[in-house]
TrEMBL record:
Annotated localization: Golgi apparatus membrane
GO cellular component: Golgi membrane
Official protein name in the record: Hexosyltransferase
InterPro entries recorded: Glyco_trans_31, Nucleotide-diphossugar_trans
PANTHER family recorded: BETA-1,3-N-ACETYLGLUCOSAMINYLTRANSFERASE, HEXOSYLTRANSFERASE
KW Ribosomal protein (keyword) present: no
Species lineage: Eukaryota, Metazoa, Chordata, Craniata, Vertebrata
Gene Ontology molecular function, alphabetical: N-acetyl-beta-D-glucosaminide beta-(1,3)-galactosyltransferase activity
A GO BP entry: protein O-linked glycosylation
Length: 319
């Protein structure tokens, strides 16, 4: 009597376990299928596909003998030599664990042969310029971002972290490196997170998006494009997700749409106890000790960046 009861109990438990497990497997595969949007048509994907473009200048071997802790991916116009020089002379100057690369396209309004020669000369000198054959315009920044991700995934797959950052940003590398040492190594992206973004439907806006291009009336959470940091595995994943996301001319929202496909939530970076946003997207008057507590500050001309860094790099430790 007692024995049959035990036996029934065992059978019951095994059956329940099998049931729960298969329900779990079924549900997770179903939800994966429903979450993934349809792939883009060949025509739509061609616009952002890395196969559409080729490198005019490349640095394919920069990561061959090293695995940088942090790679700065800096989008710049081909003519912005002064901005590149300021970045090299400040936060982008090669530290032991970091690497800085500039991504550029073709000048708008045609390629000046002389300007191209200068760029090639600069590239020979510094070996940090990657030029791709698309027109380097504000509207094409999304293409540039997807190609930067693809570049990192292909040529520097063993880096730990990367930061997409504009050349007019002040980056407090000391604060940044310190924070990254305790951060997740995978599936991680942080910056100034925008959760309530909506498309602008006014055609005169710089950020105009037609309903045809983007029918939804809100954006998923995304990190502001001025500067954001991610674990390097995200480069291949974002590049993969771009097969499912139609090209829109807002690169940071575009990355947010890729994150939604991937099910990765961007993380807000703040300091305690005030919950101060560490990725300051406004521009602030230079102040050594205020800057020492932040990660980025927006809106620096090359000369201002050099000047502020000159003071900061020597004095930030005494705040
Ligand atoms: C973007 O780049 C492509 C490829 O070079 C070019 O055909 C197109 O005109 C560019 N778009 C804009 C808005 O500059």
């Amino acid at each position: 009597m007692r024995r049959t009861f035990c036996w029934r109990l065992v059978k019951f438990l095994v059956a329940s376990a099998v049931l729960v497990l298969s329900a779990h497997l079924l549900l997770s595969s179903v939800s994966k299928h429903t979450e993934l949007p349809p792939t883009l048509s060949a025509g739509e994907y061609r616009l952002i596909s890395p196969d559409t473009y080729h490198y005019l200048l490349n640095q394919p071997a920069v990561c061959q003998d090293r695995s940088p802790f942090l790679v700065f991916l800096v989008p710049v116009g081909p003519q912005e030599a002064a901005a590149r020089e300021a970045v090299r002379g400040t936060w982008g100057g090669s530290g032991p664990g970091s690497l800085t690369l500039f991504f550029t396209g073709l000048p708008e309004g045609g390629r000046g042969a002389a300007a191209q020669k200068e760029l090639e000369e600069e590239s020979r000198q510094h070996a940090d310029i990657i030029q791709i054959n698309f027109v380097d315009s504000y509207h094409n920044l999304t293409i540039k971002t997807v190609l930067m991700m693809k570049w990192l995934a292909t040529h520097c797959p063993h880096a730990s972290y990367a930061m997409k950052v504009d050349a007019d940003i002040f980056v407090n590398v000391f604060q940044l490196l310190g924070r990254l040492r305790g951060s997740p190594r995978q599936g991680f992206i942080t910056g100034s997170v925008i959760r309530d973004g909506r498309p602008r439907r006014d055609p005169s806006s710089k950020w105009y998006l037609s309903e045809e291009l983007y029918p939804e009336d809100s954006f998923p959470p995304y990190v502001s494009g001025a500067g954001y940091v991610f674990s390097a595995d995200m480069a291949a994943r974002i590049s993969w997700a771009s097969r499912f996301v139609r090209l829109i001319p807002l690169e940071d929202v575009y990355v947010g749409l890729c994150l939604r496909v991937l099910g990765v939530r961007p993380v807000y970076s703040y300091s305690l106890p005030s919950f101060r946003n560490l990725f300051e997207i406004r521009s602030l008057q230079y102040d050594r000790c205020i800057f020492s507590r932040l990660v980025i500050i927006n809106g620096f001309k090359p000369s201002e960046l050099l000047q502020a860094w000159h003071d900061f790099s020597k004095g930030h430790g005494s705040c």
